[in-house]
Target: Peroxide stress regulator PerR, FUR family
Amino acid sequence: MKKMMRMTHQREIILEELKRLKTHPTADELYEIVKKRLPRISLATVYRNLDVLAELGIIQRIEVSGRQKRFDGNPEAHHHVRCLVCGRVADAELSQEPQVNFDSVKANGFKIIGFNLEFEGICPECVSKGKFKFFNNKADTIFNET
Amino acid sequence: MKKMMRMTHQREIILEELKRLKTHPTADELYEIVKKRLPRISLATVYRNLDVLAELGIIQRIEVSGRQKRFDGNPEAHHHVRCLVCGRVADAELSQEPQVNFDSVKANGFKIIGFNLEFEGICPECVSKGKFKFFNNKADTIFNET
DNA sequence: ATAACTGCAAATGATTTGCGATCGG
DNA sequence: CCGATCGCAAATCATTTGCAGTTAT
Model:
């Protein structure tokens, strides 16, 4: 009893716009973009479609920290950088993949299946705005001197 | 004009309980624990205290994916494993740190400050329950055959 | 024909905030 | 004393869901 996916007009446009973007938008960012072509579309439809497309592996839900989920039109596994100031996410390419031997990881009895390498940085826009002073060692938080 | 932190009774207990735990609770999990000692404490107080303690680097807000934020009483940088089934987080120790040369990372103009290595797996409790069948390659999603 | 899908509105879940009362330094 | 912090309730933000009408196959 496998249910089948229909290629609705909404789904087609959502997929097309997500794939066009080099950035990795949140659901509501994509909603704003898609709304230009389909003014009557609802945000719930965007959420639902991102879900089914990610479930089928046509796109991917990016596993980064941050309150909002982000989506990537490229289903291939690859790494990302997240801007600590604005949350924007971009692709990060490593010249060589880090070798991690799962068997050597002591993980309190967890069965390890994979890992996720997420870079943290400042995006070009936020660097130029210079709206930050310094970071605590590992933080997602910006302190403004006052 | 730096404002100073007061060591209130609530803050003291929250910190004490978080540090006692080897696990990395969400704010509301910690709230339930703390409530046993301070029955009148409010969840908002737990959130506010976790914020100031993390801001000061006394504890850390764990940067893993997942809807709820988790906290670690150990402020030292280290890696974590996240259970793909229940979301539980534990420490992960690597016999040797992966070497990542930031300069070799092509990241669309982002200034790279650090990285975050998060392992994905199944915790002992969920393994023994066996409530899952298989995973898609990189997913946070569990498919149940029906 | 009919199950998958849609838009809308209301529901949920996590976290944050305004406020008047309280307390620590 | 007085500003940081508290408890409480309401507000906000992201995401999900119920439902009745619509559409792709």
Summary: Chain A touches chain B through 54 residues (CB under 8 Å). The helical segments of chain A are 9-20, 27-35, 43-55, 124-129. Confidence is low (pLDDT under 50) at residues 136-146 of chain A. Chain A has one domain: 9-141.
